[in-house]
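User: I'm writing a short report section on ligand binding and want a predicted complex to refer to. Could you take this sequence and iron/sulfur cluster and write out the structure as tokens? A short remark afterwards would be nice.
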Amino acid sequence: MSVSDVTSTPEIELRSLDELWFQVAGTVCNLTCNHCFISCSPQNHSFEFLSYEEVNAALQESVEHGVREYYFTGGEPFLNKELVRMLKRTLNFGPATVLTNGTVLKKEWLEELKTAEAESGFSLEFRVSIDGPTADINDPVRGDGTFDRAITGVALLCELGFLPIITMTQTWDDSENLQILESFRTVLKTHGCDRPRLKILPRLKIGAEEKRTEGYQQTERITAAMMQDFDRNQLLCHHSRVVTNRGVYVCPILLETDNAKLGKTLNEALGSFPLSEGACYTCYQFGAICTNSTLRPLESAE
Amino acid sequence: MKLALFGGLYSNYLALGSAIADAQQRNVDAVYCLGDLGAFGPYPDRVFPLLQQHNILCVQGNYDDSIGNELNDCQCGYTDPKDNYFAQISYDYTLANTSDQNKLWLRELPKEIRLQCDGLNILLCHGSPRRTNEFLWESTTSPAFLNRLAGEHDADVIVGTHSGIHWQRELNHGRQYVNVGVLGRPENDGNRNVWYAVISTGKDATPGALLCSVRDLSVPVSVEFIPVRYDHHRLATEMQSERLPDEFLQTVLNGWWTTCLEILPSRERRAGQY
Ligand code: SF4
Ligand code: SF4
Ligand SMILES: [Fe+2]
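Assistant: Sure. The structure tokens for the complex follow:
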């Protein structure tokens, strides 16, 4: 390999379509978190809601691709009034996960979903974003009062027998992780969640987060040399695509990147993608942070 | 054709002994083990002579790859610090107590075994056909995905283990995916027994078998999941004397998983107590 090859931008091909994402609320959110990597807000209509028909069509198309599970994100998915119907439909095909901020959940929606989940035999997972175990840590990032509102949502999920996964975007030092996890467990127990599932996620320094702190350095890029002996399965774009109202994109992270739209339909969006963005560097370091399971490579042989 | 299929042994040589006796009594044509011989239980060397005496061919699990090659961990891919803490205790114990000869044996096991039964392609793997340490849980694996795997790997019946809970799904054309469960520890349902599976094809299939219609064939395939009882008190006592964590003993004695829970999807997690 010559020097320019080693430092050049590597391409990643789609190994297989394992997870299908739906940008179901576009970039519209009831909150305006100042670390949001796609700068969602009540006013950001850069991407709009998906319709039930669009989701249903993609579900049907997904079968021939052998999709294993489905993810719903935004913005805030529950702002889309068709979400419950979409999730119920999805559970006929396979497992579903909703990434929500937990602040707009309604009991009757969750009861309906609970029944649908039980009948389907698949898991319906809720990933609720709360950025720390106290309002003091969370609210400066996500907005005044959002900690209490999200915890109320989590308590409701637990009351109905769901086991929500709480995801925290890390805005503190690594050395504080264990203590943060421990105090969050305690907080959740007082709200009726006796089996807390917690995940700490790295910050993606794009969108609003780029303005809040800093963006990526030019050196924070994946190079071809870095991809040698690297397990590509760690990258979401190796096994996922995201359906938006503007077409199919490479991943739910790079919606604002020009070349990230790969086609109008799933079949048009199966091509490879250059890993040229700073956010790709975070994926490289931390793995497929957006999914529920992260697989580590087998050390030998594969 | 009638096959007995054992999942992860996790050093539970007592359950292995009971399962072998049970399978013999059912007049099976062959017995296979799908890997993960060590982990969790005591005296890892004790499962080897049983497997070898009874000519039980084994697939290499992630644990076997790790122990055989003396890697640093079990490659289960746990992401939670607590899960990793307990996983590492059993791993270090198993690594230290497996003989060199048995490590060599583990190192040479195949990643998969392919069988022809009454014209059907039966694929024995550990996690999934494409990846030894991939977890296939009932509640997070769509039929579309399994159909893809069956097609890509040219299998009419895919048989695996690794996740620790048995389940089965019918696929297109009467093909099937079967997770045989594990002999190593109980299934997180409050029962002390462990499980294995008997798959029968052709004239050995039981009434109500699923008809697998592929190529120009139409072959009945039946799957029975067999609960296995064994002296779990003795296993717990031996684990205690080997100073394995009390959390592991509790699982053996009470049938509920106490560790490595963060990897479970919500549905499987809710079925348990912790
Ligand atoms: S981080 Fe989530 S909750 Fe916050 S603005 Fe973005 S989409 Fe909305
Ligand atoms: S941001 Fe991550 S998932 Fe998206 S293209 Fe880059 S590496 Fe892939
Ligand atoms: Fe395994």
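A remark for your report: The longest strand of chain B covers residues 219-228. Residues 46 and 166 of chain B are 24 Å apart (CA to CA).
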